[in-house]
Amino acid sequence: MQNINSKDLLLSVLPSDDVLSQCIHCGMCLATCPTYEMTKLERSSPRGRIKMIKSVASGEMEISKIFAEEMDFCLDCQACETACPAGVKYGSIVEAARVVVEKSGYGKPLGRSIKYLALKIIIPNKFLLKVAARLLRLYQRSGLQKFLHKSGIFKRLAPKLSEIDLLSPTVSTRFSDNHFQESYPSSISSKCKTAFLTGCLMNVMFDEINSDTVDVLKMLNCDIIIPNEQVCCGSLNEHNGDFDTARKLAKKNIDVFGKYDFDFLITNSSGCGAFMKEYGHILKNDPEYSEKAKIFSTKVKDIMEFLADIGIEQKFKSLNDSVTYHDACHLVHTQKIYTEPRKVLQSIPEISFTELEESAWCCGSAGIYNITHYDDSMKILERKMNNIRKSNSRIVLAGNPGCIAQLKYGAKKFKVDVEVMHPISFVKKSLNQ
């Protein structure tokens, strides 16, 4: 393992020196933590992990295999933040700890390899990501994927990899940045000047959702700016301990979007929105970008948050559908957006809306957690799918691409007859054209 000073490194990446002292170890977080629920081990709880991190920060212990495994085992769903009476920012603490783990060389070899390839090389580079997406699309649509699974060859050779392969979302027929214009001026008096983040995975795997988002903004008579030079927001890197790449991507987006005049930057991925709202925090010590980042972050809006704030004047069509809603972790726990999507959905006439039991409980996707911790992820997913089954809804809505892919996989794996959609796609379907 690398010889690093764990204490100094950890203290250098924590948000502030006193952040660890906020935790009063009351235990309110335990009932909300999926990993503690699975193991019932104190070290697998938020307060248990904080205690371990405190020990490293004070110099009482060095990074160990168990420490690295626990930081990696955490989903970073931040449900504990919602439950915490002391306002502990657990997400920033565990993400700082992951930086130390990353530098130390501990962690699962498969997990490290996947993270390095995906997060350091492919996702930050738009060209490489699109090359990888085209190769995956060829594999998915050529019949090879179907043959390998239907014949049983894949399952016999690599059972776990066979299941992980099915988790991959279907690559879109077209990529958003290839067909979007950089500017869509409103044909009448503009209601609002908006910019739009096409994203990285959203760009290549969820173009339909991006297109639905832009279409709804057009219906609302918004001016829309979609800079072609924009890059990945950096959230996946930051959540997995690669702060350097995350900051580089943040600065690039601030520069690119800073060339335009807009009121709000619209996102349709909860992870992206949550992280971009933190640009002001992660760059607060950067003399060149601190003020620009702060202004940038204040303009970021999730699409459902935006719709709830400005109101939808268009008339909805009556849809005789039964609907439930899954709260994406980084929407409800990080951005604290809970009522806004429900407000918009419940304004649609003649839909039967059912609150999902444990709606804010993680689905187990958590970035690439369902790949690096497949078995644990499936335990969490099964609980979510059982709750969806009990809702008796025909449609489940989720505002994050990882959640959407995970729930679609879960519907097949656990035989739950439900259609999975993004809320903005349901809104577009409901609006009169």
Short account of what is shown:
The protein has helices spanning 6-13, 34-39, 46-57, 65-73, 79-83, 90-104, 109-122, 126-141, 144-150, 153-157, 159-167, 176-179, 201-205, 207-219, 235-239, 243-257, 270-276, 279-282, 290-298, 303-310, 329-334, 339-345, 369-372, 374-391, 401-413, 423-430, and strands spanning 183-184, 192-196, 222-225, 264-267, 300-302, 321-326, 351-354, 395-398, 419-421. The chain is α/β, with parallel strands linked by helices and 433 residues long. The strands form two sheets. The chain has a five-stranded mixed beta sheet with strand order 1-3-2-4-5. Strands 7-6-8-9 form a four-stranded parallel beta sheet.
Give me some keywords for this one.
433 residues, five-stranded mixed sheet, 4 domains, Fumarate Reductase Iron-sulfur Protein, Chain B, domain 2, alpha/beta, four-stranded parallel sheet, Rossmann fold, globular
- The main sheet orders its strands as 1-3-2-4-5
Mean pLDDT: 90
Major sheet description? 5 strands, mixed
Count the helices. How many?
A: 26
User: Would you tell me which CATH topology of the largest domain applies?
Assistant: Rossmann fold
CATH architecture of the largest domain: 3-Layer(aba) Sandwich
- Would you report the number of β strands? 9
Count of discrete structural domains: 4
Question: Based on helices, strands and strand pairing, what is the structural class?
Answer: alpha/beta
Distance between the termini: 60 Å
Percent helix, as a range, is 40-55%
CATH class of the largest domain: Alpha Beta
Principal-axis shape: globular
Give Rg in angstroms. Answer: 21 Å
